[in-house]
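check these C-alpha cells.
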Amino acid sequence: MRVDGKAEGPRQSMSWLHTWSSLILGWLLYAIFLTGTLSFFQSEMTVWMKPELHQSLPPQSQVQQVQTALNFLQHKAPDAGAWNINLPSSRQTTTELNVRGANEDPRARRGGERITIDSSTGEEIKARETRGGGFLYRFHFELYGMPRIWARWIVGIATLMMFVAIISGVITHKKIFKDFFTFRAGKGQRSWLDAHNATAVLALPFHIMITFSGLLLLMYMLMPWGISSVYPDRIQFLQAQRAEMLGEKPPSHQEGVGREGRGEQSQNQGNRNMVAGQDRSQSMSRGEGSASQSGQQRGERRNGAPRDGARERRDLPTQTAALTDITPLMLYAQKQWSDNTVGTISIIRPNTTNSEIEIKALYAESVLHRNVVPTLIFNGVTGELVSDAKPVYISVPTGIYNAVTVLHEGRGLDLGLRWLLFISGVVGTLMVATGLILWCVKRAPQQEKQGFKSFGFRLVENLNIAAIIGLPIAIASYFYANRLIPAQLENRSDLEIKTFFCIWLFTLIYAALRPARQAWLELLTLAALMYLCIPVLNALTGGRALWSSIYHEQWMVASFDLVCLFLAILFIFSFFKLKKHKGTVKVKKHIQPKQALAEAVEEA
C-alpha cells in the first residue's frame, strides 16, 4: 500500500522485494560471485601457487609427452595394476601420473600414487602442499569451517534470493534496457544506479544462467523428491543419465553405484577425464576383434545384450607381455579427433597379455555431453582397435541440464569461452557491489539530515567495505602466504587459509574503527600495492617471471600476473576517483531565502 492509500502496482510492489532480497545476503552473494568467477581459472591459480611446476615446458608433440611418461612408468612401476597419464594442456604445464596397485580398482576416483613429472625431461617434481584455486572453488559453494550440508543449504538459499533479486530487478526498472545506454557521471545516486543497471543488463543472460544452473546443481539437496520417487539415490539417477547419453540400457537399481557419482564430483582435469568415460570404457574394453567387429559389439551392448565372452577373456590367466608401441595409437586418435586433442591415457594391467589402452579426448563433443568424452580402446599387446564409442543421444531435459551446468562449472571448455564466462562473472560481481553501495548512497542524505549515522546504516557501510574491498585483499594475502610460508612446513595449506580469514577479519575491524571514506581510501591503497607486487613476488620466490613466462608462452602463469596488474590499476583508478569525489551538489529550484540560508549553515 502506498502512502496516499492507493494500491501498489506490480512494479512498485517488487521494489522492496528487490532491495531486501539482495541486501540481506548481499555480502555473501558478493563473496560467492567473486570466488566463483575466479574458479573459472582455478587450475591456473593452482599452477601459479606451485612455482615448482613452472620449470616444466611441454614439448609440442603429444607423442613425445606420452613416451616420456611411459619411460618413467616403466622404470618406476612396471608391475603396477594400472597407469593413468594426464597430458599437459593449456591449463597444465606438467604430466600428471597415477599408479595403481594390482589389487586396486583402476577406475576408482581416489587411490593410487600420484606423481608429477616434468613434461620434457621426465624428472619427478615435488611441489609444495597447497589447496590452490581449489580452496576458492570450494568456498564458492561450501563456504568453510562448517558442515558441508549446512553450507550448501546456506549457499542454495542465497542463490535462490539472488534469482529473485534478478527477476524482481528487471520488473522494477521498467526502463532498465533504455538506461543501459545512459551513464551520467558525477551525479551521485543517479550514477550508481546507472552503473548498477548497466552491469545488470550487460550480462543479464549470464546472470540468469549462472543462478539457475547453481540451483540445478543443488537440486538433489533442495528438491530431492522427484528423483527419490523414481531412483533409490542420487548416484542411480546419475548412472541412468549417463547411460542415456551413451545409448546404453540404464543400469538396474541393484547394480554397482560407485562410479557415476564419482565421475560427477571429480575436481581436477586428470581425474575428470579418467572418470568421464569409465562406464563406457569398461563395457567397451571387454570387446574382441577388429574395429568393425567392435561396432557390432557396441550395438549389442546398447541393446542390453550379455557380454559373457568378455568376462571369460578377463578371467584368462595373466602372463607377461610387452606393451605395444603407443605412437601409432596416438596418431590414429589425433586423426580421428581433428578438432580435439588427447587428454588422458589409461593403461590397464600394463606389460601383461590382458593389457588395455584407453585413450580419451580432452573435451566432450559439446556442452550437451557434459564430461562424457570420446574414447578409443586398444588391445595393449597387439594395438588392435577394440572399441570407438561416442555419445549417441541427448534428450531435451538432459541437454538443458548438461549445457547450463557445464557453463556454470566451466569444465571442459575452450579458453575463449572460459574468458567470456570470467568477464561476465566480473560484471556480475560489480553488479552486486554497485547494488550494495547504492543502498548506502541512497540513504546517505537522510543520515546527514539527522546529524548522525544510525547503527544499521553504519553496519551496512562496514560490511560493504569488508566485503567489496576486504575480500580482494584477503585473496591477495592468500597468494602471499602461499609464497612466504616455508614450502616444506607441515600443514602449510591450513596456514594459507587461516591467513586468508585473518586478513579478511582485519579489514572488517579496520572499517569499523575508521571513518568510512578514509577506510575506503586506505584499503584501496593497500589492495593496489598488494596486487601490484604479486608479479614481483612470483619472480622472487621461485616462480617464472612475467617476461619469461610470456617469452616461453606459458600463458597460464603470465595471465595470472597480468590480471593482478590489471586489478592494481583498477584499484588505483578507484582510489583517485573516490579521492576527487566531494559529494553531490544538489541544485534546487525556487528555494526560499530562509531555506537556502538554513541549508548553507547546515553544510558549513
About this structure: Confidence is low (pLDDT under 50) at residues 254-313, 584-604. The beta strands are 82-86, 95-100, 113-117, 342-348, 356-361, 375-379, 385-389. DSSP finds 27 helices and seven strands in the chain.
